[in-house]
Design a protein that fits this description.
- The protein is of the alpha/beta class.
- It is 39% helix and 15% strand.
- The protein has an 8-stranded parallel barrel, surrounded by 6 helices. Strands 1-2 form a two-stranded antiparallel ribbon.
- The radius of gyration is 20 Å and the shape is globular.
Length: 343
């Protein structure tokens, strides 16, 4: 397992991170992801991760209404805390009160304290804002996060699902006041979702922000179960979750999977392994957050590392997954001499 720098921070993270969104499953949405609420089973998954060098575990307070954090904390409690890293998030609503949502000082401090209790930990290694809060002043949010870092409750801060200007404004405010800066951005990026490349990737390169990729298999579309002539299986979680996630045109998906299938024949690798390996070759990517409903899926995902696609294979996947850019990105792409694609 390769370890990579998280942006320009001093922290190194494994190229694969285990996403604990499959832990818990106490509501219908997250039950579709997975419903590992048995501590022994969760601990077994954790041990497989650690044995293979996956020492970063990602969760969030809203995953199964906090149950994911609870299960993850108990699944890790037999390990030396310093041997693993925990990433969690807040901002989205968790509670019915007027202050149980957002990135205000009130909610962030409350959320961190509650996450620490559920995780059974004294600190959080990487703390993400799960989304941008346009109501709370950016200065209030970042000062609160900086205070939590200085108190030792958080070691690094990161964001998720920000637009380019959200992230750039936040970095500018942190720099102005000498506060902790976002060193990571947890973003959606996949072979069937490449919009990240248009604005967020060049920004991340310029500002030294590492990318933690969520849903690297395109919201479950690149598992190898869906291809031309084979519709979504009846048991697929996509039937329950597709409406909440990125929309993908069927013909476009089939075109990408066709290209992956060709490379699968050349390499002997599976569709998801190829899709993950392609992402690991992309600029700014520090780690891929991979979930697994069972041991078999987990070991399949681990098989995405330790080998490399050829330049020709990467080019084939690039061409198959390319989509028309929106403005101003299509215009900038015509001025490639001064707007080169990140390498």
């Amino acid at each position: 397992m390769e370890y990579r720098q998280l942006g320009r921070s001093g922290l190194k993270v494994p190229e694969l991170c285990f996403g604990a969104g499959t832990f818990g499953g106490n509501n219908e949405f997250f039950k579709a992801w997975g419903a590992t609420d048995d501590i022994a089973e969760a601990r077994k998954m954790v041990d497989i991760c650690v044995e293979n060098g996956i020492t970063l575990f990602d969760t969030a307070d809203i995953y199964s209404n906090g149950q994911s954090e609870e299960v993850l904390g108990k699944a890790l409690d037999h390990l030396d805390r310093e041997d693993v890293m925990i990433s969690t998030k807040s901002t989205f609503r968790l509670g019915k009160g007027p202050n149980d949502v957002g990135s205000s000082r009130y909610h962030l401090i409350q959320s961190v304290e509650r996450s620490l209790k559920r995780l059974g930990s004294e600190y959080i290694d990487i703390y993400h804002l799960h989304g941008f809060d346009a109501v709370s002043p950016v200065e209030e949010t970042l000062r609160a996060l900086d205070d939590l870092v200085r108190e030792g409750k958080i070691r690094y801060i990161a964001c998720s699902n920000f637009s380019g200007w959200h992230l750039m404004k936040s970095l500018s405010v942190s720099e102005r006041y000498g506060w902790s800066k976002y060193v990571g951005n947890q973003a959606y990026y996949s072979l069937v979702g490449r919009e990240f490349e248009w604005e967020l990737m060049p920004l991340a390169l310029d500002q030294g922000v590492g990318t933690l990729v969520w849903s690297p298999l395109g919201w479950g579309r690149l598992t190898g179960k869906i291809r031309r002539g084979s519709p979504i299986p009846a048991e697929s979680r996509l039937h329950k979750t597709a409406a909440q996630g990125p929309q993908v045109d069927d013909e476009y998906l089939y075109k990408v999977v066709d290209a992956i299938d060709e490379i699968a024949k050349e390499t002997g690798k599976t569709v998801p392994q190829i899709a993950l390996n392609w992402l690991l070759r992309r600029p700014t990517v520090s780690t891929l957050i991979v979930g697994a409903r069972n041991e078999e899926q987990l070991r399949q995902n681990i098989g995405a590392v330790g080998w490399t696609l050829s330049k020709e294979q990467v080019a084939k996947l690039d061409a198959a997954s390319e989509v028309p850019k929106t403005y101003p990105y299509w215009h900038q792409a015509q001025f490639v001499e001064r707007n080169p694609f990140p390498v």
